């Protein structure tokens, strides 16, 4: 049973159901005033019911334990920070009542699907790095949770999860920091397309992904992420970034101009090409209406010259010499 009490400005720490005072002197304030609690022990396997007394709880540390399920947190409507990394959690659940939660740390668990975050309308940081996944599997993302976080999430850590694509994360347009090291990302075109939609991205870490070895990898990401300040732990020089952006803009403008010239040539020269017969007018293959067209547009197959026979000429009085067979 919890006996001694602590100032609300100091965190409480539980050690196997015993309350330990970390800092400050004990006082006689109700435990309901406590705003921070640490349950730091290797033996804790579930969230203790005794915590329900702490109605003003805003920060809860439950990391480095043996917790297998997220539960008994319905009372913590004021909770803003929840630290549950390095436990045995396999499912993200029972968080729907934590409407004020802004930071959630779940790294080092056994989670295979990022889900159950639909009601966390204030979540700004999500850390799910280094999950203990079954061999050959990767961390996947529930579209409903990602959609719900699209307007609030700013910091995301998905490192060390065998992830090979990021299309599912495209809706997260408010991201400013992404940590995705030690994964299997390799499609530079996909990464460019997704990151170009994240107009607020300032820090990006993709170290130890296959994509890092693609030609022009750094240049392409700098031009895709216009305000990026740090890429893979290296700061981006403003002058270098502006040079690359200007170079890409010039290249795109030239390509657009060349494409426009090609379209203009096709418009002004409508002749189609048959490699067996040479250039032909488009009317040449339209036999159904050839009689209504000018003679120069008529189909070659219907255009011929009529030749009068010798008998017809004689009948009109034209003298035609008769050959006798002698030379």
From TrEMBL:
CDD domains: PPP1R42. InterPro entries: Leu-rich_rpt, LRR_dom_sf, SDS22/Internalin_LRR. The keyword Repeat applies. Keywords: Leucine-rich repeat, Repeat. The keyword Repeat applies. PROSITE patterns: LRR. It comes from the Eukaryota. Residues 257-295 are annotated as: Disordered. This is Protein phosphatase 1, regulatory subunit 42. It comes from Cyprinus carpio (Common carp). The lineage of its organism: Eukaryota, Metazoa, Chordata, Craniata, Vertebrata.
């Amino acid at each position: 049973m919890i006996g001694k009490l602590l100032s609300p400005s100091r965190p409480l720490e539980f050690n196997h159901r015993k309350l330990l005072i970390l800092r400050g002197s004990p006082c006689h304030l109700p435990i309901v005033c406590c705003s921070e609690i640490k349950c730091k022990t290797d033996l804790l396997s579930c969230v203790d019911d005794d915590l329900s007394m702490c109605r003003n709880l805003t920060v809860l540390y439950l990391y480095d334990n043996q917790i297998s399920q997220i539960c008994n947190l319905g009372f913590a409507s004021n909770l803003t920070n929840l630290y549950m990394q390095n436990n045995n959690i396999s499912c993200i659940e029972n968080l729907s009542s934590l409407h004020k939660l802004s930071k959630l740390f779940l790294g080092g668990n056994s989670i295979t699907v990022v889900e159950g975050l639909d009601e966390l309308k204030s979540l700004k940081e999500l850390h799910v790095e280094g999950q203990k996944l079954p061999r050959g599997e990767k961390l996947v993302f529930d579209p409903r949770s990602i959609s719900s976080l699209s307007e609030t999430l700013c910091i995301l850590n998905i490192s060390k999860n065998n992830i090979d694509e990021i299309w599912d994360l495209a809706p997260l347009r408010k991201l400013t920091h992404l940590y995705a090291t030690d994964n299997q990302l390799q499609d530079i075109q996909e990464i460019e397309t997704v990151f170009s939609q994240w107009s607020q991205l300032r820090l990006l870490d993709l170290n130890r992904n296959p994509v890092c070895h693609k030609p022009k990898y750094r240049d392409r990401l700098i031009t895709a992420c216009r305000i990026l300040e740090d890429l893979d732990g290296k700061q981006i020089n403003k002058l270098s970034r502006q040079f690359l952006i200007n170079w890409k803009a010039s290249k795109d403008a030239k390509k657009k101009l060349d494409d426009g010239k090609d379209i203009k040539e096709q418009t002004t020269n409508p002749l189609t090409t048959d490699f067996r017969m040479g250039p032909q007018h488009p009317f040449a293959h339209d036999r159904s209406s050839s009689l209504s067209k000018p003679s120069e547009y008529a189909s070659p197959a219907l255009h011929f010259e009529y030749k009068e026979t010798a008998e017809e000429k004689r009948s009109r009085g034209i003298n035609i010499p008769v050959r006798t067979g002698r030379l």
